[in-house]
Write a structure and sequence with these properties.
Blueprint (H helix, E strand, L loop, with lengths): L4 E4 L15 H14 L3 E5 L5 H12 L5 E6 L3 H9 L4 E7 L2 H7 L4 H17 L3 E7 L6 H13 L4 E6 L6 H14 L3 E6 L6 H11 L3 E4 L13 H10 L12 H12 L16 E2 L2 H9 L17 E2 L7 H10 L6 H14 L8 H20 L1
Parallel strand pairs: 1-2, 1-8, 2-3, 3-4, 4-5, 5-6, 6-7, 7-8, 9-10
Length: 379
């Protein structure tokens, strides 16, 4: 029995990012790569949106991969019927849990919510679906009422419960406390759905896992509403390297998957984005490069090769002699420590008036100048 499961929501919550649209072929490709990576569930979309959405979900289900294909539904029978029309076996039903959602958004009351949970969850279960129920805005809900929702869902046949920090307002500590209390009350698997509004989605998700939540919702590159969701690549690598999980992820697929989602979503991640940013394995500081070249683990928590990346040594304003010698060796040129110091001084002077000098060109000019001097002297 595994200790945790990954539910990827790139194709549902990820596509709800303003301006993001995945074409049918892109959705299928992303779903296939998620399956190859080793996620446990793929939340493939919202069938009630229309026939086009249904068609894509049908094709993803027909892939018959290892991942279970999940559909997202409102608390309505017509949504469950739309999922059934896709051939979906695993369905998720979202339930408004906070008073602001119940009273202000839906203009309903708590009694109505419980009645709908009973009616729609039992309907899905009777139709043969494996039902999970999610409490939307759970982090702002009254805990007593939240537990009432969960207990009603379990009674009607739900097998898993989702706790959604819809606005990303929890901290790692409050996440742990909330999830631990829920786990103590509820006899069902709990799933955590985090948002990144305050930059804590990944940390909160890990706290939820440590408090007892067995399921973690993620999206590739953290794609999602507003500031996004818990980033799949961050969770996967943290579980592997920091929590020493033995989940059989195909780690080398992470970078390719990230790049495909960036291209399909037209949302390019920042250069310093953890795990997949193009600069996260670049090193410039002289002290860092010196240590790194002696032993990479001095300044790298895992090898870039693990995810198909390469280490990059950058020559710049903060570089030291070791970096200069290393870069010139890459060019097939040997220099003395004295010559390396001359080059460092030249580079430092250049950066006083130019933010982006062509360092490689400077090195080449220096080499040619030295050659010309040597040739003139020897003749």
């Amino acid at each position: 029995m595994r200790d945790f499961y990954i539910v990827d929501t790139t194709l549902r919550d990820g596509e709800q990012t303003p301006g993001v649209v995945f074409l049918k072929k892109e959705k299928i490709k992303i779903a296939r790569m998620l399956d190859e990576l080793g996620v446990d569930y793929i939340e493939a979309g919202i069938p009630i949106m229309g026939e086009e959405e249904k068609d894509v979900i049908r094709e993803i289900i027909a892939m018959n991969g290892k991942a279970k294909i999940l559909t997202w539904n409102r608390m309505k029978k017509m949504d469950v019927d739309a999922s059934l029309a896709c051939g979906a076996k695993y369905i998720h039903i979202a339930v408004p849990a906070s008073d602001i959602h119940i009273f202000q958004k839906l203009r309903k009351d708590r009694k109505w919510v419980i009645q709908q949970v009973q009616e729609v969850v039992s309907y899905g279960a009777e139709k043969g679906c494996i039902v999970s129920v999610g409490a939307e805005d759970a982090s702002r809900a009254e805990e007593k009422f939240l537990i009432e929702i969960y207990q009603a869902a379990i009674k009607e046949g739900a097998v898993r419960l989702r706790y959604a920090d819809t606005l990303g307002i929890l901290t790692p500590i409050t996440t742990y406390q909330a999830i631990k209390r829920i786990c103590d009350y509820i006899d069902a698997d709990l799933e955590f759905h985090g948002h990144n509004d305050f930059g804590m989605a990944t940390a909160n998700s890990l706290s939820a896992f440590q408090a007892g939540a067995k399921y973690i919702d993620c999206s590739v590159n953290g794609l999602g509403e507003r500031a996004g969701n818990t980033a799949l690549e961050e969770i996967v690598m943290t579980l592997k390297y920091l929590l020493k999980s033995n989940h059989p992820f195909e780690i080398k697929r992470i970078l390719e998957l990230s790049n495909i989602v960036q291209e399909a979503s037209r949302k390019i991640v920042g250069e310093s984005k953890p795990i997949v940013g193009k600069s996260v394995f670049s090193h410039e500081s002289g002290i860092h490069v010196d240590g790194l070249l002696k032993n990479p683990t001095v300044y790298e928590s895992f090898s870039p090769g693990e995810i198909g990346r390469k280490r990059k040594i950058v020559l710049g304003k903060h570089s030291g002699r070791t970096t200069v010698i290393y870069r010139l060796q890459e060019m097939g040129i040997k220099v003395t420590p004295k010559e390396a110091n001359e080059i460092i001084e030249m580079i430092h002077k250049k950066y006083t008036y130019d933010k982006n000098p062509n360092i490689d060109h400077m090195l080449q000019q220096w080499v040619e100048l030295k050659r010309d001097t040597y040739d003139a002297f020897s003749s």
